[in-house]
Amino acid sequence: MDKHGSLRKGSKSLGKFTMKEPYIKTRLLSKHVRGYIDLLRPFTLLAPFIVSMSIIVASLVYNNVAVPSDWWVIVGNASLTMAIVNAASNILNQATDWEGDRISKPYRPIPRGIIKPDEAQSFAYILYLFALLRAVTINIWFGFFVFLIMIFTVTYSLPPRMKQYLFLNQIWIAIPRGLFGILAGWSVFGDPLQREPLIIGTIAMLFFIGGMPTKDIVDSEADKTTGIRTLINTFGVKKTALISFPFIFFPLAFIPALINMGFLESYLWPLTLLAFLSCFIFYLMVKGDTESTTLENIHAWSIMYVEYIFFALGFAFLTIFAGVLNLSTLL
Questions:
Q1: 291 forms bridges with which residues in the sheet?
Q2: From CA 47, how far away is CA 22, in angstroms rounded?
């Protein structure tokens, strides 16, 4: 059977493979179950899981902690907890924005009538509580940062609903996903108030302030209709790209300067190479990036998430293998 026939056969067993495909009756997954899976937005959960795992391991090595026998269980539990918090945030956002989604994302489970808004909101609260209970069992610092992330993500979607306020909506996402996310991961085995995680977290936060407008491009008209002001529907895509570029480029480009001033270790200089990927994101926005046929947003949005994952993986790799690679001698 050809690949198309195989795909059709798989679809009958498992259901749709991407968010934008229609819901169909399957042998293994009901439409309702598949609707819950789509509410999680699995692609966006890769970033918090991989980033947290990378930062936690880097913290373990950087602080020269005596490795516990179950260290991998701790790393897995903490990383999964961060992904669950992100999933809860995704669901709550869909439960409160379903009217806008009917315009810009009608393929989502709530606009399609697969899941009811109040049902999704209840599911989000259950996941938030589950994540918090998991977090406090790891350590107090980790539980504290997970709680802060929850506060920011809840108030983004619910009153005072920071999502509706121009500029503040970008900052309100960037703080928990960038700064608090890094500090939470580092706190599993290290002190979150150390200079290294604070600076790396700040770079991630600034990157998200500039990168998050990419998600608003396809929602421009829906946001305007529902009273949400974003950079995109206020200034247009090209002006937003110009406003966003310094945030996604300069924090990475200035890493060598931070090293020269003694704020970062010299082995971290390769991270500045990611600034070239930021230039590509800027180019796609100015060029008029098109929406992906499979993922939920434009390609620049996908690349933004990939760049953030590379940033965390790169930081972890350089921190863990700094002595072996001896990168400081190349600066």
A1: 298
A2: 26
DSSP string, 6-45: HHHHHHHHH--SSTTSPP---SS--HHHHHHHHHH-HHHH
Distance from C-alpha of 86 to C-alpha of 74, rounded to nearest angstrom: 19
Contacts of 325 (CB under 8 A, 6+ apart): 267, 318
Show the domains of the chain with their CATH numbers.
40-330 (1.10.600)
CA angle 13, 17, 20 (to 5 degrees): 130
Tell me: the pLDDT tens digits for 260-271?
A: 999 999 999 999
CB 115 within 8 A of CB 40: no
d(CA 288, CA 181): 31
Would the pLDDT of 329 be above 70? no
- pLDDT of 205-230, one tens digit each? 999 999 999 999 989 989 999 999 99
**pLDDT range class, residue 65, cuts 50, 70, 90:** confident
